[in-house]
Design brief:
Blueprint lengths: L3 H17 L29 E8 L11 H16 L6 E8 L4 H14 L4 E5 L2 H14 L3 E4 L5 H4 L7 E3 L4 H15 L4 E7 L2 H14 L5 E8 L7 H8 L5 E5 L2 H13 L6 E4 L6 H4 L11 E4 L13 H13 L8 H19 L5 H8 L28 E8 L2 E4 L4 E2 L5
Parallel strand pairs: 1-2, 1-3, 3-4, 4-5, 6-7, 6-8, 8-9
Antiparallel strand pairs: 10-11, 11-12, 11-13
Helix pairs in contact: 1-13, 2-11, 2-12, 3-4, 6-7, 8-9
Length: 420
C-alpha cells in the first residue's frame, strides 16, 4: 500500500502543476504569471496543426516481444490522423526508437528524441529499469514522460521530485496485492514459491504480494531471482520445484514467462497453482508452451482480451479490429500487445484533447487531472483517474483464469484504491 507521505507529496505536486496549467515555466525554468494565458510555456514539438511524440521500446534484445506494442500505437494514431484530423486539428507524428532494454541506450534515445527530433513528449517509454534512467533525464530537461509502459510504483510516488513523469497501467504493487487477496480467500494456507526479475519491476510486485499476505496463513517458502540478461530461468525453476510450495508466483517478462511455464509443465512431480503476472500473460507467451500445458493458470487484467469471444460484438473491439486491419494490415489482431498499444494511444488522445494550453506544461496538467476517463479497450469498470492525492491513472484489475485457448475473467473488478 502507498504511504501517507506519497499522498501528501501528490497534493503538493498537484498544486504546482495546477499553478502552471496556464502559467508555468519556460525553457529556462522561470515561472511565468498565471494570467490565463500560455505565454512563456514550452511549445517544443507542437504547432497549430501537428504534435510530435517519441516512444522508446526494446525492438531488439531479450525483451523484444514488447516491440509489437508500438505497432498498435502507430495504427491508432494513423487512424486518428486519417479519419479525425488528429487531435484538436493537430496530426500526430510518432517516432519510435530501439533501446534493446538497456538503460544507457534508453537515455541516449531520449536525448535523441528531445534534442534532435524535438518531440513534444516522450510517450510510452517501456520497462522499469529503462524508464527509470529516462526519468532522471526527462525531469532535468522538463520533458513530459507520459503514460510510462510499466507498472512500477515510482512513476507516481514522488511527483514533487519527478513532476514530468507519470505512469498509466496498474502499479505492480497493486497487482501483487490482488494475488495476495486471492490466495487469502481461496487458499488461506498456501505455501508460495516466487520467481521474480531482480529489478524495481520484480521487486515492486513481490513487495505488494508480501505486504498483503503479512499476518495471514499464506506463507512464502522459497524465492529465486533472475537477471534480464540471463539466458534461462531453468536453474531457478529446479530450485523452486523442490521447495514444497503448492503455489507458484511467476513475476517475469515474456521470454522468461514462457520458460517458467514450460519448466513447470515439464516437471510432473510439481503441480502448483501457477499465478503469472499481467506482463507475461499474453497469448504470445502461452502459445509456444502449448495451451494444453497452461490450463487454469491465474493472472489479472485491466484490458479487454482481443482473443476472448465475449467481446466479439463489443463496439470498441470491433473498431480496433477494423482499423488495425486497415492501418496495420497483416498483423494478428488477437495479439494482446497490439491491443495494449491501441488502448494506450487512445489514452494519449484523451490527454492531448484535455490540454487547456498546447504546451508541455499544459499536457502535464491534463494527465494529472483525469476524472473517470475511459480509453477504448479498458475493461468495464476501469477508468483513468488522477488528482491531488493520486498520481496513478489506472488502479483497477480483474482476475482471470486460462481455460481452453483464452483467458476467462472471474469475480468483480477490484479498485485497489478502495480495497482493504
Amino acid at each position: 500500500m502507498r504511504t501517507r507521505t506519497i499522498r501528501l507529496a501528490a497534493v503538493t505536486a498537484a498544486a504546482l502543476v495546477a499553478a502552471s496549467a496556464c502559467g508555468g515555466r519556460g525553457e529556462d525554468g522561470a515561472t511565468t504569471a498565471g494570467d490565463g494565458t500560455c505565454q512563456g510555456q514550452q511549445t517544443t514539438g507542437i504547432t497549430d496543426d501537428a504534435v510530435k511524440l517519441g516512444g522508446i521500446y526494446p525492438l531488439s534484445g531479450p525483451t523484444s516481444a514488447y516491440g509489437e506494442i508500438p505497432k498498435g500505437v502507430k495504427a491508432y494514431f494513423d487512424y486518428l490522423n486519417a479519419e479525425k484530423g488528429g487531435v484538436n486539428g493537430r496530426k500526430i507524428e510518432y517516432i519510435v526508437r530501439d533501446d534493446g532494454y538497456q538503460p544507457p541506450k534508453s537515455v541516449e534515445e531520449a536525448r535523441r528524441l528531445n534534442e534532435q527530433d524535438n518531440v513534444f513528449a516522450l510517450f510510452q517509454t517501456l520497462g522499469t529499469p529503462t524508464s527509470s534512467a529516462v526519468m532522471e533525464y526527462a525531469n532535468q530537461r522538463q520533458v513530459p514522460q507520459v503514460f510510462v509502459s510499466s507498472g512500477a510504483s515510482k512513476w507516481g510516488a514522488d511527483p514533487v521530485k519527478h513532476p514530468w513523469t507519470i505512469g498509466w497501467q496498474p502499479s505492480y504493487l497493486s497487482e501483487g496485492r490482488i494475488y495476495g487477496q486471492y490466495l487469502e480467500r481461496e487458499r488461506p494456507s498456501a505455501k508460495v514459491a516466487i520467481l521474480y526479475q531482480n529489478d524495481d519491476y520484480g521487486k515492486d510486485l513481490r513487495t505488494g504480494f508480501v505486504e498483503e499476505i503479512a499476518g495471514s496463513g499464506v506463507t512464502v517458502v522459497a524465492e529465486q531471482t533472475y537477471e534480464a540478461t540471463d539466458p534461462s530461468v531453468d536453474p531457478q525453476m529446479r530450485n523452486l520445484a523442490g521447495s514444497g510450495a503448492d503455489v507458484f508466483l511467476n513475476i517475469t517478462t515474456p521470454k522468461f514467462g514462457s520458460q517458467a511455464l514450460a519448466a513447470d509443465a515439464a516437471n510432473t512431480a510439481w503441480n502448483p497453482l501457477h499465478i503469472i503476472n499481467n506482463v507475461a500473460s499474453s497469448n504470445t507467451v502461452l502459445k509456444p508452451v502449448g495451451f494444453d500445458k497452461v490450463q487454469n493458470i491465474v493472472s489479472a487484467a485491466f484490458l479487454k482480451d482481443p482473443s476472448d469471444p465475449q467481446w466479439a460484438d463489443d463496439p470498441e473491439m470491433a473498431l480496433y479490429e477494423a482499423k488495425m486491419a486497415q492501418y496495420a494490415p497483416g498483423l494478428d489482431t488477437k495479439n494482446a500487445f497490439y491491443s495494449l498499444g491501441w488502448a494506450s494511444a487512445g489514452a494519449m488522445e484523451k490527454a492531448l484533447a484535455a490540454m487547456q494550453c498546447p504546451t508541455r506544461e499544459g499536457l502535464m496538467a491534463a494527465v494529472r487531472g483525469l476524472s473517470d476517463v475511459r480509453s477504448d479497450l479498458l475493461l468495464p469498470g476501469v477508468t483513468m483517474n488522477t488528482g491531488p492525492q493520486d498520481g496513478y491513472p489506472i488502479e483497477t484489475l480483474q482476475l482471470q483464469r486460462f481455460q481452453g485457448e483464452r483467458w476467462n475473467l472471474f469475480g468483480e473488478p477490484i479498485d485497489t484504491r478502495k480495497a482493504g
